[in-house]
# Entry
Amino acid sequence: MKRPAVVLCLLALMIGCEGIPFKKSLDESYSSVDPSMVRERFQASIPERFLLLNTLVFEYNWKTFSGIGFVDVDTAERTCNLVSINQMGVKLFELSIDKDSINTLFALPEFTAKGNFGKMAGEDIKRVYFDLVPSKEAEINRKKFSVIFRQQEGEGIAEYVFSGPDQYLTEKTYYEKGGPVWRVSFYEYLNRDGKIYPGGTILKNYLYGYRLIIRLKEVSD
Amino acid sequence: MVKNKMEMKKTIVLLIVLSLFSPAVIAPRAGGETKGGPDGKNGLSAKEVEIQELLRTIGEKVSGFKSLKTDFVQEKDLAMFKKKIVLRGRIYMQKPNRLAWHVDKPVKYSVVITDKAIRQWDEDTNQVQELSLSKNPIFKNVVNQLSVWFSGEYGALMADNTVSVLQQHPLIIEFVPNEKNIARKMIRSITITFRDDEKYLKKIKIHEMSGDTTTLDFSNTLLDAPVENSFFEVRRV
# Structure
């Protein structure tokens, strides 16, 4: 009798830990939506160059770590500079990304002790900020409350889900061998001077079992 | 990525000490070079003796309080970015051993350090993490460093820094880590500006080797004002 209760508690705890701290967009019928227009409108709405101040929460193996991120992104040039500091202002790491490389300019030893931290963090940043619009050739699947674009990317398949009344990108998932490798979910879009920014972003890495939660605090030009 | 959070926190706090409060770890030279000839007392040059005396006097003034409340603005000017990161918050200190550091913007975060433990909380995780001081000698060291800085025991700084007086009114002192100082690899210099009455700090500016600069500006500083226990609570609603 006790064992099922313990299992239920553990399950509840696990589900709680995977909670989403952002509002999901409301369901909206997509029966009359033109998928190509969804794609084009979204492309026109997202900024090409931006500087964001975020807070970051990294969850891994039942542990959490939080900090502040400052990121300068140029999606056209595919470049990005990122610095993360702790809440007392101490720099944790600094990365520079361009078309061909990811450079770790600074990182505390704790970040670099195991594995290639710079590459891992850099790839995550690219997943969050780059390649958010499916190609015109993507396969389209219109659902009741969403439109899904699927296309080949690298060795796998990328799936873009547009949903909600604003018809913005709410989820991008990358699959390999039939299973998800990573997923980025976008919430609570804000409009600043005609361009949109997700107020909340969650990256889930299924391969390594971690989650990164990003909260937008400030947008600069 | 962050495999050992405890180790991370240790390093972070240590770095905070090194970068923000650790002029205490550094040793000064006054107005000139601390490598001057031994023409003063205890083998120090006249200039070094003068600076040592100044630090002692300032230390006495700064140490003359039992409690402290101050607002702060921390600006990080990163070499790679055109814009600065600005953090705002409050610091509370109650002698002999309670220090609270609260950040209010852009994120709510609190850390409270006592002689027994360090507790910290942030609004995003909404978790309080507690670390025992007795089981973490490194934190003990941190608290010692903090107490040196905030209590004005500046004489200890002479060993690992070159100290210069940049200005008399208001008093501005520069600490440059010397070759004995482990902070030398990261920190180019730390400049301290005192209030007009020289009873407390007005500004700390840290120039890092990377080209980054961190400035801490203190305002609305009250010495010996009543402090409430709530100032030393980390969790906020």
Q: What stands out?
A: Helices of chain B lie at 5-21, 46-62, 137-151. Residues 123 and 237 of chain B are 9 Å apart (CA to CA). Confidence is low (pLDDT under 50) at residues 1-40 of chain B. Chain B touches chain A through 35 residues (CB under 8 Å).
